[in-house]
Amino acid sequence: MQAMRWMVTAALLCGSAVSAGAFAAAAQQGKAPLGVDLKGMDRSVQPGDDFDNYANGNWRKNAVIPADRASTGIFLEVFQKAEKRNAQIIRDAGAGHPAAGSNARKIADYYAAFMNEAAIEKAGLAPLKPELDKIDAIKTRTDLSRVLGGQLRADVDPVNATHWDTEHLFGLFVTQGLEDPSHNIAYLLQGGLGMPNRDYYLKNDAEMAGFRDKYKAYVAATLQRAGVADAQAKAGAVMALETKIANAQESLVESEDVHKANNPWPASAYAQKAPGIDWNAFFEAAGLAGQPVVDAWQPQGIKGLSALVASEPLDTWKAYLAFHTINESAGLLPKAYADASFEFYGHTLQGTPKQRDRWKRAIGAVNNDLGDAVGQIYVKKYFPASSKAQVQDMVKNILAAFDERVDSLDWMTPATKQKAKAKIETLKVGVGYPETWRDYSALEIRPDDALGNHLRAVEQEYRHQKAKLGQSVDRGEWWMTPQTVNAVNLPLQNALNFPAAILEAPFFDPKADAAANYGSIGAVIGHEISHSFDNTGAEFDAQGRLANWWTPQDLAHFKAAGQKLVEQYDAYEPLPGLHINGQQTLGENIADVSGLTAAWIAYHKSLGGKDAPVIDGMTGDQRFFLAFAQSWRTKTRDAALRQQVITDGHAPGRYRAQTVRNIDAWYKAFDPKPGQKLYLDPKDRVHIW
Ligand SMILES: [Zn+2]
User: Fold this and answer.
1) Fewest C-beta in 10 Å: which of 354, 432, 479, 519?
2) How confident is the model at residue 442 (pLDDT cuts 50, 70, 90)?
3) 148 Cα to the center of ligand 1, angstroms
């Protein structure tokens, strides 16, 4: 699963959180720390030509991407701070000889097992033997359907943290119904690929062709290492099957369209709507038999994958399942498997030269599988009540700025404004950590069974999600752990999570100048709030129900403004011939533009009617926009950049920094001239919220 792979993870996810009255006070003294990195700027660049390089050019010239990373930047800097703290927490967990069954005991045992390379070598493929035996025993389509159902896990998330891909043929997501916010239902999503997404199988450029050759060789080597006969021929068959899966899948842009996802089929209707799989056997093995609703998120994709279960040879499916069963656990198998997996997923697909040290991978795995157990200790140690209060205050200020902004929109009718304001008012904001913690008492963790621990944790998570089915919705449920450097908007819950670990310098420094804090973490808070009103968020009402609460003329204006933003981002070309997909990244780009606008308003409110001080020759607005651009500074390896552009809903950080070109105040602050590359005529600037 995700944790076992060598993904970019740390960088560029959603957004984030904090600040408040404290900076305003500091700023008014005029001598606050700047919060802007002057040395990182390149003043030989005209801000109107390339604001990212103006703010970050010297930093980028000198920044070195760590050998075990695909990128560097402020997200990595803050991630490393959290990683160090988590490492301390995890290593200390066993110190007091905690009682068997306690969270501390589980953390210590999980970590010890992960670090015990000798035991992992000795076990070989043994922890996977029960699953590999089941695959080997497949004789009929019903057997195959049962194995596919038994592998279903809660490993996808189309609306919150947005994980679109699983290498299982399908993935499960559980949350409230799109049209019934009072109860949780099951959502079935397409999956089944070993490479990052369908474009890696279908695109005709030289890079992708090269990745396909290397993937096929990797599949063959893995099967061979596992003692499978005819590994070469089987790898060819697996590749051909995955190419058919890729063809059957819906695209990312289609998947992002919630209207296309609104297909609440009863489990009993699948046999007729998506023939091929023995759905009775599948749902029974998945523990979902008799579900009144299993929403088909990508109905065409699910139909296509089901048909392949019937049409493709059983032997090919068996080789495919054997490979993926090993591949998804490669990081916890003997070194030969783990190294080969890194070579393909880390080195080839991301350009990262060196595998991360084992202890770092162990910390990451504990954080994934026992996230709330570590998180409870993390917030006790590193997130005092005063920080929580301060952050809640800042969120309140930016919500008020957003509300004010809605009032001032000249294109929006009063009826739509009223609905938008109701949504702001009912938004449930979680800061730092959840109100209730995940219970791990039923999860067995052994000090000598690294892979077994992980498999049991993933199964436990699946059981937890399944247990929510049919229950009423907990709007306080969190979708990120507190020690995660990220933040998230939950459109169906109409809620936000700002984890403790992102509320750190340089995103947020209580001692820094207000301009910098609002430009950095303030824009991140604004970004998350704005997701409630992006092209997806705006489809949900205050109760999180998929509902059309817009008047037709307002909706037409909103769509036209969105289209302008699509075209703006379509024009960016991060690598030769590879453009950003403006539609695929639209929600994030709307959130960036609107979040920056709301943060700017909140910054000015925080000044209490006074002029911002000039510090080191820079006005408050200059510092605000520079801090914003610097919070998105990144340097990324080409292969990883390619993967991000193709698979991610977020534009690369360099282009997020250029968001400023849509904000009128930026023109006043830096005086860009018509004809310069970022300059937009007032009528071409996108103002959505
Ligand atoms: Zn976002």
Assistant:
1) 354
2) very high
3) 32
pLDDT at 18 over 80: no
481-495: per-residue pLDDT in tens?
999 999 999 999 999
Cα of 584 vs centre of ligand 1, distance in Å, is 12
* Cα–Cα distance for residue pair 344/649, rounded to 1 Å: 23
Distance 491 CA to ligand 1 centre (A): 11
Q: For tokens 């997130």, name the residue.
A: 383
For the record, the structure tokens of 285 come out as 């093995």
Q: How far apart are CA 577 and CA 642, in angstroms?
A: 11
Going by DSSP bridges, is the β-strand pair 184-190/170-176 parallel, antiparallel, or unpaired?
Answer: antiparallel
Structure tokens at 359: 């202890």
Kindly tell me if the per-residue pLDDT of 26 is higher than 80: no
Confidence class for position 497, pLDDT limits 50, 70, 90: very high
This prediction has a pTM of 0.92
Q: Is 373 exposed, middle or buried (0-12, 13-18, 19+ CB in 10 A)?
A: buried
Residue 7 has pLDDT above 80, yes or no: no
DSSP code of residue 261: T
Dig out the tokens for 206 from the structure. 């030289």
449 alpha carbon to ligand 1 midpoint, in Å?
37
How many whole angstroms separate alpha carbon 97 and alpha carbon 358? 24
Q: 573 C-alpha to center of ligand 1: Å? A: 21
Query: What DSSP designation does 277 have?
Result: B
Mean pLDDT of the chain: 92
Angle between helices 371-382 and 74-92 (to 10 degrees): 100
Task: Answer for the pair 419, 541: CB distance below 8 angstroms, yes or no.
Answer: yes
Place of tokens 């459109």: 491
Residues whose CB falls within 8 Å of the CB of residue 144, separated by 6 or more in sequence, listed in order: 138, 309, 314, 317
Element (H, E) at 216: helix 206-225
- Cβ(666)–Cβ(625) below 8 Å: yes
The secondary element (H helix, E strand) that includes residue 488 is: strand 488-490
- Report which DSSP code applies to 577: T
Which residue is listed with tokens 């003294």? 29
- 16: pLDDT strictly greater than 80: no
CA 16 to ligand 1 center in whole angstroms: 9
Dist CA 386 CA 395 (whole Å): 14
The verdict on whether omega for the bond into residue 506 sits within 30 degrees of 0, i.e. cis, is yes
Over the stretch 536-557, which tens digit does the pLDDT of each residue have? 888 999 989 998 888 999 999 9
The confidence score (pLDDT) of residue 33 equals 55
For residue 14, the model assigns a pLDDT of 52
Distance from C-alpha of 421 to C-alpha of 398, rounded to nearest angstrom: 13
Ligand 1 midpoint to CA 254 (Å): 18
374 sits in the region (left: phi over 0; alpha: psi -120 to 50; else beta) called alpha
**Residue 582: what pLDDT?**
98
432 forms beta bridges with: 499
The pair phi, psi for residue 131, each rounded to 5°, is -70, -45
Amino acid at 681: D
- How remote is the CA of residue 529 from the centroid of ligand 1, in Å? 9
Cα(518)–Cα(625) distance, integer angstroms: 9
Q: Which of 79, 14, 159, 19 is nearest to 488 (CA)?
A: 14
Mean pLDDT within 300-315: 98
